[in-house]
Amino acid sequence: xxxxxxxxxxxxxxxxxxxxxxxxxxxxxxxxxxxxxxxxxxxxxxxxxxxxxxxxxxxxxxxxxxxxxxxxxxxxxxxxxxxxxxxxxxxxxxxxxxxxxxxxxxxxxxxxxxxxxxxxxxxxxxxxxxxxxxxxxxxxxxxxxxxxxxxxxxxxxxxxxxxxxxxxxxxxxxxxxxxxxxxxxxxxxxxxxxxxxxxxxxxxxxxxxxxxxxx
Amino acid sequence: xxxxxxxxxxxxxxxxxxxxxxxxxxxxxxxxxxxxxxxxxxxxxxxxxxxxxxxxxxxxxxxxxxxxxxxxxxxxxxxxxxxxxxxxxxxxxxxxxxxxxxxxxxxxxxxxxxxxxxxxxxxxxxxxxxxxxxxxxxxxxxxxxxxxxxxxxxxxxxxxxxxxxxxxxxxxxxxxxxxxxxxxxxxxxxxxxxxxxxxxxxxxxxxxxxxxxxx
Lengths: 215, 215
Fold this sequence. Notes:
The structure is a homodimer.
Chain A: H1 3-11, E1 13-15, E2 19-21, E3 29-30, H2 32-45, E4 53-57, H3 61-72, E5 76-82, E6 91-98, E7 103-110, E8 119-127, H4 131-142, E9 146-156, H5 161-167, E10 172-181, E11 188-190, H6 193-212
Parallel strand pairs in A: 4-5, 4-8, 8-9, 9-10
Antiparallel strand pairs in A: 1-2, 5-7, 6-7, 10-11
Helix pairs in contact in A: 2-3
């Protein structure tokens, strides 16, 4: 287990309905020393990419993105969420479905903060169905900028977001991938990412097939 | 002028209606090196306080709070804003009027993240009428915790929030206090805080009198 998986086991709480509560260190109370370790790990995983900007989305992505940005020495832009569109000036807007809140949100970035010169690392705290993430990717592409990669703290590996994003060809790095949880025992099953990397070539075909049923 | 005032003059945009746009470095795109300078300055101004937690409010306070927290080596808690109350578990809730969005918001912090042992520094990006800030102070006090101080990036000195908070006896440190703006010329007038400190004792009586008309 890596440092984040260890922390999830120690302080995460599994609830019914595949809910993993990590609000004591990740998305309500925030452990900044942990965020710094996460930032260093993102830097290691994206060391060869010419990243000049980090893009995240309010609210709980902002803390991780800002601390990680210190390892890349780049500015952060956070996309705003709004049910209505009322920002002034020119902006990129993506429509995003929120399953949690059962509504359509707009994800918004001012055009002046993303240009075709930008090489963007997208960072967020959670990846589940990937709707918000796909909105962010769409915005980067609308700007003619390059998505150099996606860094996620916790991916729910049993939901489809990660598979879809990887099959689209993006370098998606999740520091912890939860493949299963048991609310009764509190047990959390993590994906063995080193093993996965080794088997990647063989399993790729199967992954693509399975993802095609999710559209 | 200090480093933040210089940056506001360089990149801030004054708009009609006393609006100061700082979205290129503070609250949409975020200059993390600037945030680091701000964090160091907050640490200098609150050096003698036994701060063990930083409290901020989503969304644009989070980045500043997280980078500043590295100078204090403490965790950050961000209060959530919601028009409805639907978080599970026990929480502290303050009602806050939003003049910008013309509605009542609830500011919410889970009770387990604030206790009577906590010595809290509240950090936010903007202070104008101070409604959100007063909600945060109320929440800290509901928890029986101590407000050790308030650190703000930009205070609109011509609105009443700063005066009210100072008159309540809190150590409020705003890195830049804007006393006036001219949308036609783009000119921004900052308060001379060093001079203000020197004159503090004489003017305190007057300050208190003026604040009493604001209730």
